[in-house]
Design a protein that fits this description.
The protein is an alpha/beta fold. The chain has 3 domains: about 5-155, PAS domain (Beta-Lactamase, 2-Layer Sandwich); about 160-320, Reverse transcriptase/Diguanylate cyclase domain (Alpha-Beta Plaits), CATH 3.30.70.270; about 340-560, TIM Barrel (Alpha-Beta Barrel), CATH 3.20.20. The chain is built from 23 helices and 20 strands. The strands form 4 sheets. Strands 13-14-15-16-17-18-19-20 form an 8-stranded mixed beta barrel. Helix 12 links the parallel strand 11 and strand 12. The longest helix is centred in the last third of the chain and has 21 residues, at about 390-410. The protein binds ligand C2E and magnesium ion.
């Protein structure tokens, strides 16, 4: 025989409840604890029962409530007597009735234990979500339930974009996962469409955030209208929207949906008294089998979207076999590039910069070369963009700085004109970590004076954030290192920008040099650069000189320094 103090609270309640239930119901509004015994451990348990914020109850297999703690009244608004008088059908949400009945059917729960959620009626007509845990014993369910309504609402909120109320990334991926799992049962393909609004940022910047928000709401509305009810439109933040489309006939239908999206966005929007036109880039990826990973499918749609965007003019791209192969090749290069530094597969080639009056060498440009073990050389144009994306460029760039400054320090002593060593620095290298510290480190390590180093920064990187670039270039020049604008004239930069930047050198892009003989407009730009350089004491370097004719023309317009295959190709020292 077990003594009463050894009983679990649940057992104790169960033992006492049999004798007390009727009087509990008679006394309705009072604490049920009063009927659980007033002495010793029984009284303590009774107090706990009254205090518990969870709902505690005994329930018959038919769903009738018996012993109830006071928390019931707080959560559902009905008195405990009212609750006991109500049937399961009156209390439980119609959609949850069937499942609740089966949960309370002891024959359906062989372990005599069950966990489930359902909705119970509140006196004010709303529904409260309850999370149940119940054990069956002596023909009674001993149950406790938590009111999880608020928690669920919060969770639901966390699954939605606060501005548009569309599902967010988490919810979309979850739905995609479920849709893909259904492919297992022979369902038709599922597609994800990744949508990026090409001109949204400009609208946000010029018309303000309120207008930007309004525009996003209108886009959300148009997308929802353009798609089928069964499709899910989600917003991933910023100007990215994603559509999940199920039960498709094939790739062609996914593309048709993409075209509908493009049409929906093409029509101008009326925002803050202005008419705003947007363009969208759409990437489409289709899953045909249940083995597809939802995140992978999303990534494929994202890659296709980027492809559409960078193709310019083309708005929609499908992630197909060709794109799959390209991505695989890139991943392969990316993987091998990670080992390039430790395996010492990188080299620097050096290309001289010559005075065009024939008086000798004034500089070198260090150019990165990659010779992977066991395969062909990979071109910088192929691996540098990957290195930039993966941040590997920062470690590689530091190696370039150190190697090039060491090389310059050893060569310089033999040179009459004390040439400068130029090193290319990408925007990523400028932005990550402390470039000034890395430069100082390389100079100290090599013994090269600061004036013997020039950092080449491309026009594009300067334009990305002019103010930040200006500050950084000033810090670099303060330590005595030179700065050059590289590929000048290839993009959007202007002479006035060049004149206002803290720089020492302008490198004229080879495209400008190439057209010099045929194109008087280009000749005009180069001449203007020559006079700007004279007035502001900038150094000017014409790059990409390949022919005698180009050399002659560059000399004629008065450019003092040149670089190009004709003068000397880049060479890797033995
Ligand atoms: P860039 O700074 O414009 O470098 C000049 C490119 O033009 C080099 O290509 C060079 O080999 C090539 N070149 C030189 N003379 C001629 C010529 O007469 N005709 C033609 N058609 N091309 C000529 P490369 O070595 O393939 O480098 C490509 C780009 O990669 C460079 O363009 C630079 O932006 C980047 N890069 C190279 N090395 C590094 C590096 O160490 N770090 C970083 N961040 N970027 C680098
Ligand atoms: Mg360069």
């Amino acid at each position: 025989m077990v003594s009463s103090s050894e009983l679990t609270p649940e057992r104790r309640i169960s033992e006492q409840q049999h004798g007390q239930q009727a009087s509990a119901s008679e006394q309705g509004g009072q604490g049920a604890g009063e009927h659980l015994g007033r002495e010793g451990a029984g009284a303590e348990i009774a107090r706990l029962f009254d205090l518990a914020s969870d709902l505690l109850a005994t329930i018959s297999p038919e769903g009738r409530l018996g012993l109830l703690n006071p928390a019931w009244q707080e959560v559902l608004g009905f008195s405990r007597d009212e609750l006991r008088a109500m049937s399961l059908r009156e209390l439980v949400h119609p959609d949850d009735l069937e499942s609740t009945r089966s949960r309370l059917d002891p024959t359906a729960q062989p372990a005599h234990f069950t966990n489930f959620t359902n909705r119970y009626r509140h006196r004010d007509g709303t529904w409260r979500w309850l999370l149940w845990s119940a054990r069956f014993q002596d023909d009674t369910w001993y149950a406790s339930a938590k009111d999880i309504t608020d928690r669920l609402a919060l969770e639901r909120q966390a699954l939605r974009d606060p501005l548009t109320r569309l599902p967010n990334r988490i919810l979309l991926v979850d739905r995609a996962r479920q849709a893909i799992a259904r492919l297992h049962r022979g369902r038709a393909p599922v597609a994800i469409l990744f949508i990026d609004l090409d001109r949204f940022k400009a609208v946000n910047d010029t018309l303000g955030h309120a207008a930007g928000d309004e525009l996003l709401l209108q886009v959300a509305r148009r997308l929802s209208e353009a798609l089928r009810d069964s499709d899910t439109v989600a917003r991933f933040g910023g100007d990215e929207f994603v559509v999940l489309a199920e039960e498709l006939e094939g790739d062609a239908e996914a593309i048709t949906i993409g075209e509908r999206v493009l049409h929906a966005i093409e029509e101008p929007f009326a925002i803050a008294d202005a008419e705003v036109s947007l363009r969208a880039s759409v990437g489409v990826a289709v899953a045909h089998d249940a083995a597809t990973d939802a995140e992978d499918l999303l990534r494929q749609a994202d890659i296709a979207m980027y492809r559409a965007k960078s193709a310019g003019g083309q708005d929609l791209e499908l992630f197909d076999e060709r794109l799959r192969r390209q991505v695989a090749a890139r991943l392969d290069i990316d993987e091998r590039l990670r080992h390039a530094l430790p395996r010492q597969e990188l080299r620097l080639a050096y290309q001289p910069q010559m005075r065009l009056d024939g008086r000798g060498r004034v500089g070198w440009e260090a150019l990165l070369r990659w010779y992977p073990h066991g395969s062909l050389q990979v071109e910088p144009a192929e691996f540098l963009p990957l290195a930039r994306e993966s941040r590997l460029i920062v470690a590689i760039g530091e190696w370039v700085l150190r190697s090039a400054t060491l090389q310059a320090a050893s060569w310089r002593g033999r040179e009459r004109l004390q040439p400068t060593m130029s090193v290319n620095i990408s925007a990523r290298e400028l932005a990550e970590g402390d470039i000034v510290a890395r430069v100082k480190g390389a100079l100290a390590h090599s013994g090269l004076p600061a004036g013997g180093l020039c950092l080449e920064i491309s026009e594009d990187s300067l334009l990305a954030d002019v103010r930040a670039a200006r500050e950084l270039l000033e810090r670099i020049r303060q330590i005595g290192v030179h700065v050059a604008i590289d590929n000048f004239g290839s993009g959007r930069s202007s002479l006035s920008l060049a004149a206002s930047m803290p720089i020492d050198t302008i490198k004229i892009d080879r495209e400008l040099i190439r057209g010099l003989d045929r194109d008087s407009h280009r000749r005009g730009i180069v001449k203007a650069l020559v006079s700007l350089a004279r007035e502001t004491h900038l150094r000017l370097v014409a790059t990409g000189i390949e022919t005698e004719r180009e050399l002659k023309l560059v000399r004629k317009v008065g450019c003092p320094v040149g670089q190009g295959f004709l003068l000397s190709p880049p060479q890797v020292p033995a």
